[in-house]
TrEMBL record:
It comes from Halomonas caseinilytica. GO terms for molecular function: phosphorelay sensor kinase activity. The chain crosses the membrane at residues 330-352. Pfam families: HAMP (PF00672), HATPase_c (PF02518), HisKA (PF00512), sCache_3_3 (PF17202). SUPFAM superfamilies: ATPase domain of HSP90 chaperone/DNA topoisomerase II/histidine kinase, HAMP domain-like, Homodimeric domain of signal transducing histidine kinase, Sensory domain-like. Residues 455-669 form the Histidine kinase domain. Residues 412-446 form a coiled coil. GO terms for cellular component: plasma membrane. This is histidine kinase. Residues 353-406 form the HAMP domain. SMART domains: HAMP, HATPase_c, HisKA.
Amino acid sequence: MKRGLPSWARSVRVRLLVIALLPMLVLLPLLLGMTVWRWSGKVDDLLTVKVNGDLTIAHQYMARLRENSGDRIEALGASVAFAEGMARPDTGTASDFLERRRRALGFDFLYVVTRSGRIIPSDTPVGADVSARDWPVVRAALDGATRSAVDVFDHEQLAALSPALAERARVPLVPTRAAKPTSRDVVEDGMVLHAAAPVRLPGGQRAALVGGRLLNRNLDFIDTINGLVYRDRSLPEGSQGTATLFLDDVRVSTNVRLFEGERALGTRVSAEVRSQVLERGEVWLDRAFVVNDWYISAYEPIVDSRGERVGMLYVGFLETPFREARIDSLLLIATIFLAIAVLSVPIFLRWARRIFRPLERMNDTIGRVEAGDLGARIGTGGGRGEISRVARHLDDLLDQVQERDRRLRDWASELNDKVAERTRDLQEANRRLERTTEQLVMSEKLAAVGEITAGVAHEINNPVAVIQGNLDVARQTLGARADEVATEFDLIDDQVHRISAIVTKLLQFARPGDFSGSANRLVPAEVIDDCLVLTRHLSSKADVTLKRDDRSTATILVERTELQQVIINLVVNAIHAMPEGGTLTLETEDREAEGMAGVAIIVTDTGRGMAPEVLKRIFDPFFTTKRAQGTGLGLSISQTLVARAGGWIEATSEEGAGSRFTVWIPAFQ
């Protein structure tokens, strides 16, 4: 069953208040939410623009640094000092000169390579397998053009330049969340700011002046970028700017902290960023998880002199202060809205209470009228509002309804009295008609049985007398020889006696008054005791268990043999209904019927029971379910005997669950 709304929710005042407050309590928060959401999106866009500008600055600084390296190499190669310093390369003067200039220019290596592959190094040893001429920047210089780029040197190339340089480039990998799985545990390649310029050696031979700066673990380089991009007060308090140089997806130079005092060298970028930047060559402008926190991040790929993506340049700043500022703003807006709602809603409620008070009185009055109080009235006084006029009109309508209800009640009372009187007359007439019909039916049955009985008595008794007489003559005639057929004579005697008994029952049913004796004042339990003695041989033979429950204290006025006949008939029928044994229960109790005290005798068995169509006919004369074992008159005679004593007999039964017969006889007063 569906439950309705609570009474307060069905109030018109509440509903109208909801309609009035809906714009402020629902639509306004919705608009505020959409505004905040749009504002949050704009802030995210501004942060993206900001980090994109930061990346542009870092990119320009990196490009300027690369161009500056090429310019410095070119200026050195064109200087008089270079021509003088390279005048005597075989004596070691050239190497000393290159070493002094390497240190002055801040390069990690500086050497001269000729077209034939001959290398004039600085004091830093250079092996034979440096493969100098294979680099595009070197080939460009040998062809007469200055060029600079970011190139990646493998471990053997770095070791050929300088074992110390190879060791400095080595960065152990640190396991990083969300990074692409790898089997490496260390990075030994080096990212180098690589520059070369064309020069002429003494004697006019063309060569290339090559210099480079290792960026692995170059903290001054990355701190310079970070300081240039994120100056003081360029970020809100609590935020922090970071910059990183990646070799492939590994941080080889960064100011991001793994923990206090330890830079996150060897940590790796997430697989998502790596896919977009390194694999697809796109710029990343979005929030990203960097080592241990979320940053507004910008990544761009670094392309070497061969046109391959070899690393990434990153700048970003901590997202937490912006997120906290956004949450604080949302909380402030929500607090202001709640404060306004708390202050304004009571004012609206008080105002609405005055407006809807007559309407609430109308609702209360209607409820009282529905409960039966037709005298309830609204009584709004002299109010001039629309609701007050409606209330006064409703009072007038209620007056009319009350008057009409009074008239209808009077008419209904008169009509009920007449209907009750007619109903009583009809019921009495119906009862008389039923009794008359029953008497007519019974009279017809008795008349029919009387005719049959007279015919039977006339047609059967005379032949039976002749048979009995001739049987006696046969015995006398045979004399001693009659003993030879004594069994047959006894069988004839029994059958003649049975025919006489059947005729007697027919006569008893047709003219019971001829067989009745004088009525006696009896105790039903005592009569039942006698009947059980007479039927004990049947119950013991059928393995029937007997139960008694005598609760009756009244006496009845009935002829003893007739009551015995009724009880014995019911007991015998019950025993026959339990051929495989069962329980027979006999009870007596005091019971009123139609306002008259009486005694009920109840016989219950656990036998086969009867079907409904059989139960309807058990009191009909000559109806039997025992085939040749009965005449079908036992229950009919019992009903007649009980009715003559002023009582009745009824039966209930369920097929397969036994039967229950109740005999009721008025108590003796």
